[in-house]
Amino acid sequence: MKFISILIFAASLSGCINTTDGTNLDPTFYSSTYYVERQPKDQRNLNEDIADELNKRGLNATAGEPGSKPSNTDFTVSYIDKWYWDMRMYLIELRIEVRNRNTEVVSYGVSKQSSLAAMGKSHIDVINRALDEMIASDRD
After folding, report:
1. Angle between helices 46-56 and 123-132 (to 10 degrees)
2. What is the pLDDT at residue 1?
3. Within a 10 A sphere around the Cβ of 73, how many other Cβ atoms?
4. Which of 11, 17, 21, 107 is the most exposed place for a label (fewest CB within 10 A)?
5. Which residues pair with 60 in a beta bridge?
6. This prediction's pTM
7. Spans in the chain with pLDDT lower than 70
């Protein structure tokens, strides 16, 4: 009986997982322009939310459709969003990538969470965790 109780307790702890990963954006890129391109299958317009959060962090970001990037854009921001159903739809994983004009990835951030960790959180929280992995918090 003790073994079963320990097993159930251990299994419940694994439901509280938040993980992040990423590479920092070079500080010389902070004054650049960014275009967050909407993923074709995205019906939630996460590109607009990502651009809003980038702007709140002091970066110059706009959002729009694929192929509509302004010519003066320095970096293109793309994302891969994975949603999951567990009594509600929630964003289980988000990867944000910043690409230069040569389409090379210069920075990325990933945020993953379990269903239990997502309780009381919104997709904006997931966006910000991914951006935290990309943008130094101590920058001026």
Report:
1. 50
2. 62
3. 17
4. 11
5. 33
6. 0.81
7. 1-22, 114-120, 137-140
**Cα separation, 25 vs 125, whole angstroms:** 20
Taking only the tens place, the pLDDT of each residue in 15-53 is 444 555 667 788 888 889 999 999 999 999 999 999 999
Tokens 């959002």: give the residue. 63
Q: Which two tokens stand for residue 93?
A: 């994983």
AA identity, residue 23:
T
Q: Are strands 89-99 and 105-113 parallel, antiparallel or unpaired?
A: antiparallel
CA distance 76 to 69: 8
Check residue 5 and give its pLDDT: 47
Strands (E), 1-139: 18-23, 33-37, 60-64, 75-85, 89-99, 105-113
For the chain, report the end-to-end CA distance as a whole number of angstroms.
56
Distance separating alpha carbons of residues 136 and 85, to the nearest angstrom: 32
Q: Which long-range contacts (CB under 8 A, 24 or more apart) does 85-89 make?
A: 86/115, 87/115
- Tokens 């990867």 locate to 95
